[in-house]
Amino acid sequence: MRTDLQARRISAVIKSEGEPWDHRKDFATAHFHHGDPVATYKSRNRNAMVCQITDGRLDVNVESVSATGKWGLQMNTRRRLVLGLMAGALTVPHASFAQQPAKSARIGFLAPASPQVLYARLQAFRDGLRELGYVEGKNLQLEVRWGEGKLERLPTLAAELVQANVDVIVAATSPAVVAAHEATRTVPIVMPVSSDPVGDGLVASLARPGGNITGLSLMAPELGQKRLQLLQEIFPKLSHAVAVLWNPTYVGMRARFEQAQVAAPAVGLTVRSVEVRDTRELEAAFEAIIREHPDGLLLLVDPFTLSQRARIVEFAVEQRLPAIYESSDFVDVGGLISYGPNINDMYRRSATYVDKILRGAKPADLPIEQPTKFELVISMRAAKALGTKFPDSILLSADKVIE
After folding, report:
1. Which 3 state secondary structure label does DSSP give 230?
2. Tens digit of pLDDT for each residue in 54-71?
3. With contact defined as beta carbons under 8 Å apart, do 336 and 186 qualify?
4. CB 357 within 8 A of CB 168
5. What is the DSSP letter of 19?
6. Rounded to 5°, angle at Cα 289 from 285 and 291
7. Counting CB atoms within 10 angstroms of each CB, which of 24, 167, 253, 402 has the fewest?
8. Integer Cα distance of 397 and 376 in angstroms
C-alpha cells in the first residue's frame, strides 16, 4: 500500500534548459503518481502520449528524464529539458520517497581488484542502497572483500563472506561470481555486471536464472557492431583491421571479444586479438599493436585494463590510434570515445535486486537485466590531438561531451 506521499498526484512542467518559465509557451506537462508505471504526457496543443516510468525515470518521447533527490532532472546533450514539479514535491527530502527496508541487512561485497580500481563502483552500490533506505551503521552492515588483483584469493574471500552469515553476496565481475558460486549454493548472489552468465554456466537462462544467482549483464546483441560503426563514422578511412585489447583471464570476456569478431565483417572490418593479462604483458601488447599497425583499437574493459586506463589511453594518443572504449572511465582520462551502458549506474541498480531478495524474492525467479540504454561519451580534446573533428551526427547523439 502506498503512503500518502507516494499516492500524491504530481504535476510536471517540461521546458528547454536555460529558458525562463513562461506560461504562454507550449511547454509539455505530465501528470502521474510517484510509483506509477506510466504517465500521461500532454502538451498544450493537446497532443498526448503515454510515457513509461522506470525506477523513477520518466521517459518522454526519445529523451530520458532521471528524477533524483528533489526531483531535479538531467537530460542528455541532444536536448536538455527541465522538469518542474508542483504539489510541494520540491520540499520533500529524497529519502521520503524510498520504502522502508524489510529488515536489517548484512551484505557481502566481493571484488577481484583493489579499492583504488573499483571504489567508485562500490560507492554507486552504496548510493543505490541508500536510496532504498539502507544506512550503514543503522540497518545495514556491509562486509567488503578485495582481491587486490589476485584472482586466486577470491575463493577464500568468498568463503569468508559465507562464514560471516551475510544475507546476500554482491559479486563484482564474473570471476567474483564464479568464486561466490563455488563457495555457496544457498546464499543469494547478485551480479552488478556480468558478461555471459548463461554461456559461462552460471545461470540457466536470462529470463529464469534458476539457482542462487541473478543481477545484470553487460551484453547486448548490437554493442559490438555499434562500436565499430562509430569508429568508422568518425574515421571513414578505417576499412581494414581493428585491434581488440582484452583480458582472457576474466570469465566472460571471450564472449565480448567474439561479439566484436562476429560483428566486424558486417561493417567491412576484421579484428585482431591482442591479449593482456597483467602489467608484464601490457608492453608486449603495445609492441604487437605497433608491429601490426591496425586502423583502430577497441578496448574491452575489465578490472585490470581499468586499472591501466591512463597508460592505455596514453599509448593510443602517442600512436595516433583511433580508439573506442567500452566505458567512459577511459574518456575521463583522455580517451577519444566510449559507448556502452553506464557501469556505475548498473552497480546502483544492483541494489534493487538486493532489496527484492531481502524482501523475500528468490534469485531463481528474478530475470537478469540486459542494458537497453547506452551512453555515448566523446572528448573534443582527444579529437583535436588526433587532428580530426567529430561529425555532426556524433555531436548530436553524444550524451556527454568533454571539452
Report:
1. helix
2. 334 444 433 333 333 333
3. no
4. yes
5. P
6. 115
7. 24
8. 7
**CA 318 from chain center: how many Å?**
29
β-strand partners of 106: 141
Q: At what angle do helices 279-292 and 309-318 cross, to 10 degrees?
A: 20
Distance CA 97, CA 10 (A): 13
Sheet with 9-16, edge to edge strand ranges: 72-74, 63-68, 57-60, 48-54, 38-43, 28-33, 9-16, 81-85
Taking a C-beta distance cutoff of 8 angstroms, is the pair 28, 14 a contact?
yes
For residue 307, report the phi and psi dihedrals to the nearest 5 degrees: -65, -25
Q: At what angle do helices 154-163 and 174-183 cross, to 10 degrees?
A: 50
Cell output for 101:
527496508
CB 350 within 8 A of CB 110: no
Convert the pLDDT of each residue in 92-131 to its tens digit.
Answer: 344 444 456 657 899 999 999 999 889 999 999 999 999 9
Q: Under a CB-based contact definition with an 8 Å cutoff, are residues 327 and 118 in contact?
A: no
Residues 6+ apart with CB under 8 A from 196: 217, 219, 252, 255, 256
- The grid coordinates listed for 27 are 511547454
DSSP assignments along 334-366, one per residue? T-SEEEE--HHHHHHHHHHHHHHHHTT--GGGS
Q: What is the model's pTM?
A: 0.72
Is residue 384 within 8 A of residue 390, CB to CB? The reply is: no
- Across the chain, which distance is largest between two alpha carbons, in Å? 66
Phi, psi of 97 (to 5 degrees): -80, -25
Q: In whole angstroms, what is the distance from residue 163 CA to residue 25 CA?
A: 62
Phi, psi of 370 (to 5 degrees): -105, 150
Q: Give the CA angle between residues 38, 89, 5 to the nearest 5°.
A: 70
Please spell the DSSP secondary structure of 124-140, one letter per residue. Answer: HHHHHHHHTT--BTTTE
Contacts of 237 (CB under 8 A, 6+ apart): 295
- Residue 108's nearest CA partner among 52, 183, 184, 160 is 160
